[in-house]
Amino acid sequence: MVMTGYCVKCKAKDQEMKDVKIVEMKGKGGMTRKAATGECTACGTKMYKILGKDFDEAAFNAGNAAA
């Protein structure tokens, strides 16, 4: 499964990320939010993408293991 995001340096929408890791960030009210972090395939800049509440990390990891 390929994760895409916006690269601030390239200004490219839906730019693919490599070496994607799922991390938890602090949110409002002491909650945690999931985000994907990786590198832009074009320029190597670090990218973040905040994920929705319905993001299925197990399916994402299974998709990466199969690829």
Summarize the structure in words.
The protein has one helix at 57-66; strands at residues 4-7, 12-26, 32-40, 46-50. The protein has a 4-stranded antiparallel beta sheet with strand order 1-2-3-4, with no helix packed on it. The chain has 67 residues and is mainly beta. The chain has one domain (4-66). The mean pLDDT is 84. It starts with a strand and ends with a helix. Helix content is 15%, strand content 49%. It is built from 1 helix and 4 strands. Strand 1 (4-7) and strand 2 form a beta hairpin.
Give a quick summary of the entry.
With 67 residues, this protein is mainly beta. The protein is 15% helix and 49% strand.
Structure characteristics:
mainly beta, globular, 67 residues, single chain
Number of β-strand runs: 4
Rounded mean pLDDT is 84
End-to-end Cα distance, whole Å, is 7 Å
Q: Which structural class fits the helix and strand makeup?
A: mainly beta
Tally of alpha and pi helices: 1
State the major sheet.
4 strands, antiparallel
Q: What helical percentage do the residues reach?
A: 10-25%
Low-confidence parts, pLDDT < 50 over ≥5 residues?
Answer: none
Beta-strand share of residues? over 45%
Number of domains: 1
- What is the gyration radius calculated from CA atoms? 12 Å
The strand line-up of the biggest sheet is 1-2-3-4
Order of helices and strands: EEEEH
Overall geometric form: globular
Topology, element by element:
Blueprint: E1 4-7, E2 12-26, E3 32-40, E4 46-50, H1 57-66
Antiparallel strand pairs: 1-2, 2-3, 3-4
